[in-house]
Amino acid sequence: MSKFISPSIKLLLLLILVGCNPLQKNNNIEINQNEYLYHKPEEVDDGWKTTSLTEQNIAPAPIVEMINKIRKGEYTGINSVILARGGVLVLEEYFGDYQRESLHNMRSASKAITSALVGIAIDNKFIATVHEALLPYFPEYEGKIKNWDERKRDITLAHLLGMSSGVKGNEDEMYPTNDWIKFYLDQPLAHKPGEVISYATSGVVTLGNVITRASGLRIPAFTDRFLFGPLGITEYRWPGTSSLGGQGLAMTGGGLNLRPRDMMKFGQLFLNDGEWDGNKIISKEWITESTTNKYPNKDYGYIWKMKNRKVADRTIHSFEAWGNGGQFILIFPSLELVAVFTGENYGLFPEMEQPFIMIDQFILPAIK
């Protein structure tokens, strides 16, 4: 009689006999497709080698749980998460519309790059020392600086790098003006230089112009020659600033656009004591000096933020570049680990600091 049973009926009987429900199977497939499946980052001929989490002694389970939470919306406004350990990429994930080649606005995390450029200028003898006075670089403003105070002559490049010039930032008032350098020099001193940390984007903009005046190179050309070129970074965008005579200065106080993999290169450069691919780009002396705490109980180096993170019974030191919206380059020397996050939580607290939760609860505990 079986020869009179249609093929479709035979298939249904077979599924019933083996206990399979095709609808349930389809549901299972849909659920599985929504779960994150870890894969090692792709090698794309940009200088990065890649390997798996386990090859670098990182437990996959906490990382997978973290990525699933991002995908399910438990952490919001995250655009990318990248990890490197032992000098190789082990995790690279993008979210929303962001992809590997997308340039991302680093906001104030790019101040750390300006700090590095000052070190490179010193290494190459364009600038003698961080203890040089600031005002001699800007002779055209002599006698024209508002709120004059003789202590302004004591402001050094080190004070700008350490955010301790005594000048209060007032960024919102700076942006509409037509000369951001003069805006900075015009600000009244709230403190004696070197005494108190006061965040000032305008001071880091001024540092960028110091580099240009000392080297004779605009910031994009200087960066190409001495930093991005040796790192193999070709895709980036510097925004401009308002400046005297329409000089078109690069905005070294924030807003540099880089790919997250290239942000990671910069972090790895500092972890490697200034070397990339066997080439010395920044002196080890500058790496050490700029990432050493300059002020008791303030946890700042030359723009870099110092942190000690507690994980179980361990205290793990890091130095970090932070940018509004969730842009972070986090470097953990004792673990040979660099983490990069980008996000779009601009002006949102505590959302922009979600990466710190991910670091503390998932990433650092996963390191063996």
Q: Quick gist of this model?
A:
By secondary structure, this protein is α+β, with helices and mostly antiparallel strands.
Instruction: Please indicate the count of domains.
Output: 2
CATH architectural type of the largest domain: 2-Layer Sandwich
Terminal residue distance: 65 Å
Task: Give the SSE order as H and E letters.
Answer: HHHEEEHHHHHHEEHEEHEEEEH
User: On the 0-100 scale, what is the average pLDDT?
Assistant: 90
Poorly predicted sequence stretches spanning 5 or more consecutive residues: 1-5, 7-32
Tell me the layout of helices and strands.
Blueprint: H1 7-17, H2 22-34, H3 60-71, E1 78-85, E2 88-94, E3 104-105, H4 111-123, H5 157-161, H6 171-174, H7 180-186, H8 201-215, H9 219-231, E4 236-237, E5 257-258, H10 260-271, E6 275-276, E7 279-280, H11 284-290, E8 305-311, E9 314-323, E10 327-332, E11 337-343, H12 354-366
Helix pairs in contact: 3-12, 4-8, 7-8
